[in-house]
């Protein structure tokens, strides 16, 4: 009797590898995002004078480029995840599909 497709996929060693790598990578990116985001929020909450420090003679303060940095960091780690997903994770998924179909 043929085992169901989902069972064959779940038991495949490449699927276990894909799941392990994707989960670990996602956790690292999540941790990095939490550190950056909550670090910025903690600065807002507990060190407003630092964020209010003027940069030059204009109206720009240190908080503005730091806030922009949080946004740019978010875009950057999204790009890193998409790059790895399109290369490594998709390759593993294709190998799994080929092996179990």
What would you note in describing this structure?
The structure is a single chain. By secondary structure, the protein is mainly α. The protein has one domain. Helix content is 82%, strand content 0%. It is built from 4 helices and no strands. The mean pLDDT is 94.
Task: Briefly characterize the structure.
The chain has 101 residues and is mainly α.
Class by helix and strand content?
Answer: mainly alpha
Query: Low-confidence parts, pLDDT < 50 over ≥5 residues?
Result: none
**What is the chain-wise order of helices and strands?**
HHHH
Rg from C-alpha positions?
A: 22 Å
Topology diagram in text:
Elements: H1 5-11, H2 13-46, H3 48-51, H4 63-100
